[in-house]
Write a structure and sequence with these properties.
mainly beta; nine-stranded antiparallel β-sheet; 17 strands; eight-stranded antiparallel β-sheet; 41% strand; 289 residues; Jelly Rolls
């Protein structure tokens, strides 16, 4: 039986959360919940205020050493291009222009546990740290979404993460959510890439049908099929939302309902039960007002 994708529950520990989008009738009985669901996030991990002065990358100061007056040193440039200290150069029309994409304000290679919430339920999803990153598996082929959240929060932000999907088909996919919040942490903006090379952007609003801000759209920038890897990027700046795939801006829209919150990662099985996705190299930039 297919379920409507309305998020219904949240579970958490001190450094993370998980939200699902099953209807209230699908929740376990109260006695069962006690063993399956830790305390809600609001009781142990309230959202923090955004940093007042986000860190920014700075170049080391120039050397003050001077050469001896009796010696002359001639430097011969080495062949080949040199790396840019500010990462790829972007046109002024790109909303990421001005960001140092080579130096995020926060980065996580998933080598240290307890920054993202881990859980496992054969009737829902399994999100756990693995040797090669953070592995998310959606164990049931339906429209339910279970995301794991991190200990990071922000308002105007640009977030990136690398994702590699395993065996998949059609609309099986994976997602990156920003500005996650709500009483059950069941609200937020979620970008999703599919196995067949499409993307969409949705607004989750709790126990109700998510709103499609950008419906499924094919994009040549996406690598499709089993074992494909893609870099997901989602910028939230004011009421604008920008979608980036493998370094290229591919879509934008606007919505002003959510202004601040956490982040989420998830796998989504629509056609292939147990579809697995490995996330790696999560990066975050705080945008200057």
């Amino acid at each position: 039986m297919r379920r409507s994708p309305a998020i219904c529950c949240a579970v958490a520990v001190a450094l993370g959360l998980s939200a699902c989008n099953r209807s209230a009738s699908d929740l376990p009985a109260a006695d069962d919940q006690e063993t399956r669901l830790p305390p809600t996030l609001t009781s142990v991990f309230p959202l923090r205020t955004p940093p007042t002065a986000p860190p920014s990358a700075t170049l080391p100061p120039p050397s003050t050493a001077t050469s001896s007056p009796t010696a002359t040193i001639t430097l011969t440039p080495s062949p080949g291009p040199s790396a840019s200290p500010t990462g790829p150069q972007l046109p002024p029309s790109d909303p990421r222009a001005g960001l140092n994409l080579s130096a995020p304000d926060y980065s996580d290679d998933f080598s240290t546990r307890f920054k993202w919430y881990e859980f496992s339920d054969p009737q829902a999803a399994t999100n756990l740290y693995a040797e090669d990153g953070f592995k998310a598996a959606d164990n049931v082929a339906d429209h339910a979404v279970w995301w794991s959240g991190s200990d990071q929060v922000g308002g105007d932000v640009y977030a990136e993460v690398n994702a590699r999907i395993g065996t998949c088909s059609g609309s099986d996919g994976y997602g990156l959510a920003v500005r996650v919040g709500g009483g059950n942490f069941d609200r937020g903006y979620a970008l999703e890439f599919s196995c067949d090379g499409s993307y969409r952007l949705r607004k989750f609003i709790g126990n109700a049908e998510p709103v499609s801000l950008i419906d499924w759209t094919e994009a040549s920038q996406l690598r499709s099929g089993a074992d494909a890897s893609n870099q997901m990027g989602l910028m939230a700046k004011g009421d604008m939302l920008y979608v980036v795939a493998n370094g290229e801006l591919i879509g934008e829209t606007s919505d002003n309902d959510y202004t601040y919150g956490g982040f989420g990662l998830y796998a989504s099985a629509v056609e292939t039960a147990g579809v697995e996705v490995v996330f790696d190299d999560f990066a975050l930039w705080y945008l200057q007002p």
